[in-house]
Write a structure and sequence with these properties.
15% strand, Rossmann fold, 295 residues, alpha/beta, 8 strands
């Protein structure tokens, strides 16, 4: 299809669609720049966006390592069925992608909902149900302690709707999605309009804005099973680096202090003047912090 954003078209061209767990899933498998000196890096995106969030930092992350990304079911360029969504199913899809990529060990970079999907994978590994070795982790802004989260008006609106495809006539379109994303930036007025429009275009792809009342149910699932998901983030023995935009209005920076209390060995980098999407708001700073966190 034709895209308004050249960056979106380039991102689509860099990836491929695979049949994973019965669904059409968009994946990106970027080879290392130069000799492959490090384990591959698996990148997991958040709600309501997709792997394109990382297109501004992907080149830096590829220095000496292969980088794997995907759009989870219901997101971005992947299939968006009208059905109930599950974090466990998302983890199944990630597992299938990693298996197809023939990766036996990897580092993990996660954001927002991806933090929770990553937590499920770590829990499975601890249980002996996933044999892939996670060597180190970088955790970005996400509501890992949901009782501390300051959910936006848009999130609360979606959670108040039935878990079903959005009805015609409700006030949610691409402009509303773009405004909701920009509102999570430290300074919404400084958001690059081209980047925000591209992100919103991918949310709306395949009528994705109508799927939002279904995909946002991950919040309810994470609330029910926080001990499993966040517990695994806290307990997994791999080295943990936390990189956090300090001005996030939803996943507030106080979560970093709580995580640091649970994992005093974690390295922490707080990015001042940055909000929920550091990879979009400050890609150079995020890339540098992530690479440092990956050791």
């Amino acid at each position: 299809m034709g895209w308004e954003s050249a960056a979106v078209a380039a991102w689509e061209a860099a990836g491929r669609r695979r049949r994973l767990c019965g669904w059409e899933i968009f994946t990106v498998d970027l080879p290392a720049h130069g000799p492959e000196q490090h384990e591959p890096l698996l990148v997991l995106h958040g709600f309501p966006t997709c792997s394109f969030d990382f297109h501004l930092v992907a080149e830096e992350l590829r220095a000496g390592r292969r980088v794997l990304l995907l759009d989870m079911l219901g997101y971005g360029l992947s299939e968006k069925p009208d059905r109930r969504y599950s974090l466990r199913e998302q983890a199944d899809i990630v597992e299938a992608f990693v298996a197809e990529a023939a990766v036996g060990e990897l580092a993990l970079l996660t954001h927002d909902m991806g933090d929770t999907v990553g937590g499920e994978l770590l829990a499975r590994q601890a249980e002996g149900a996933w044999s892939v070795s996670v060597t180190r982790r970088v955790l970005l802004n996400g509501s890992i302690y949901l009782q501390m989260a300051q959910l936006s008006a848009g999130q609360q609106f979606l959670l108040g709707l039935p878990d079903e495809w959005l009805a015609d006539g409700l006030p949610l379109d691409g402009a509303a999605v773009a405004a909701g994303v920009a509102a999570t930036f430290a300074d919404p007025g400084s958001a690059d309009p081209g980047e925000v429009a591209a992100v919103a275009e991918l949310v709306a792809h395949r009528q994705g804005e109508r799927a939002l009342p279904r995909t946002i149910r991950y919040i309810e699932e994470r609330r029910r099973e926080e001990q499993r998901f966040t517990g695994a983030i806290e307990r997994h023995p791999s080295p943990l680096a936390v990189v956090w935009g300090a001005e996030d209005p939803i996943a507030v920076v106080g979560m970093v202090d709580r995580l640091r209390a649970a994992r005093p060995d974690a390295s922490v980098r707080v990015l001042e003047g940055i909000g929920h999407y550091p990879m979009i708001e400050a890609p150079a700073a995020l890339a540098a912090a992530a690479i440092e966190g990956l050791g």
